[in-house]
Amino acid sequence: MPSQAAVAWSGFAALAVAMGVGRFAFTPLLPMMQAAGLTLEQGGWLAAANYAGYLAGALWTAAHPARSDRAIRISLAAIGVATLAMGLGHGFIAWLLLRAAAGVASAWVLIHVSSWALARLQAPIFASVVYTGVGAGIALAGLACLVLMRLGSGAAGAWTSLGAASLAATAALWRRVGSEEVAQAAPSRALPRGQSALLVLCYGAFGFGYIIPATFLPAMAKAIVPDPAVFGWAWPIFGAAAAASTLAAAPLTAIAGNRRLWAAGHLVMALGVAAPLFAPGISGVLVSAVLVGGTFMVNTMAGMKEARALAGPAAARLMAGMTASFAAGQIVGPAAASLWLRLGGSLGGILGAAVLLLAVSGLALLSTGRAAQ
Fold first, then answer.
1. What is the model's pTM?
2. pLDDT at 185 over 50
3. N or C: which end of the chain has fewer CB within 10 A?
4. Would you say 241 and 293 are in contact if contact means Cβ atoms under 8 Å apart?
5. pLDDT tens for residues 23-40?
């Protein structure tokens, strides 16, 4: 049996690929694709395609449970191939399909890595290490794009570079991730319907609330400061904040509990989403990157751990339901932003709606009190 450290670091690397590249590489690449002629509206639809795939992947996992080892390996390979192909094809329809495929695979990795790892990890610090992989992957992908922009590379070169790196990481992880199946000896636990519904709805609000800055943050920074040496740092800062905060949250879980930590994350994230509205300019964008990035993975980790505490051996199904709700919120966010922009509106109105949803859902989680650890 692999050690807890081996499980944690394997989960870390798998989530770095799945989320840092499969889900969020598009965000730092958006300014580069805009330079090649992509409109912000088209960018919103490409983001929505990825989130639609994420929703489909979560729903598939809920309806058709699969072996963790197979699901993780196949999904990581699919992410690498889909990312590489983004740099080789130039049709918008092909890009939509590739981003959707990457979204499906990313959902599978997150759900199966969460179920596999949390069933084997007792110490909170090891669970934090697993989810730190997301922020680390985001930061590394953002730094890679920053370097490539400084070197004059286009979007196609960035996509192929990230795809090749993802395939190399997948090969290294092939025998390490999900090598043992999650134990299913205990019978499924009867879930309190109201508690399950609360988790699913609040996780969906989280998906809508964070997605506007997570999708458009570098583009917002570029609109203020066109120099890539400046605006290019917005996404690496977001990822670094996500990684650091996930580790810092480990001791807080024992003090506040998963649910209260999650609630606090929603409220702090609401402040981060609102920052560009009250502090126009690059300072507001950077504050948003720190606060949204600093709570993004804390919310994810606390939500998944709360699902594990509530559902026990049946957690994978609840995690899939929460992930599907999260994906639905993400689809509505970019699609609403694209429609609002087409009608002549600004991102300010969408940001305000995100702030409201985050605040309401955070207070709802807080009012339910402390749940099982």
1. 0.81
2. no
3. N
4. yes
5. 888 888 888 898 888 887
Q: Who wins on pLDDT, 281 or 139? A: 139
Find, among 241, 371, 221, 360, the residue nearest to 302 by Cα: 371
How far, in Å, CA of 169 to CA of 76, rounded?
A: 9
Q: Among 53, 28, 29, which residue's Cα sits nearest to residue 327?
A: 53
- Region 29-55: mean pLDDT is 86
Alpha-carbon distance of 65 to 85, in angstroms, equals 28
Model pLDDT, residue 183: 44
CB 212 within 8 A of CB 350: yes
- Say how far apart CA 142 and CA 289 lie, in whole Å: 12
Residue from 166, 155, 139 nearest 80 by CA = 166
Residue 142 and residue 236: Cα distance in Å, rounded? 5
Q: Buried (b) or exposed (e) across 241-262, using 16+ Cβ within 10 A?
A: bbbbbbeebbebbeebbbbbbb
Give me the helix-helix angle, 92-118 and 315-342, nearest 10°: 150
Nearest one of 12, 47, 25 to 243, comparing CA atoms: 12
Please, are residues 49 and 168 in contact by the beta-carbon 8 Å criterion? no
- Mean pLDDT over 253-279 rounds to 89
* Torsion angle of the four alpha carbons 246, 248, 250, 255, in this order, in degrees rounded to the nearest 10: -130
Which positions ≥6 away from 328 have C-beta within 8 Å? Answer: 55, 204, 207
Look up residue 105 and give its two tokens: 């695979």
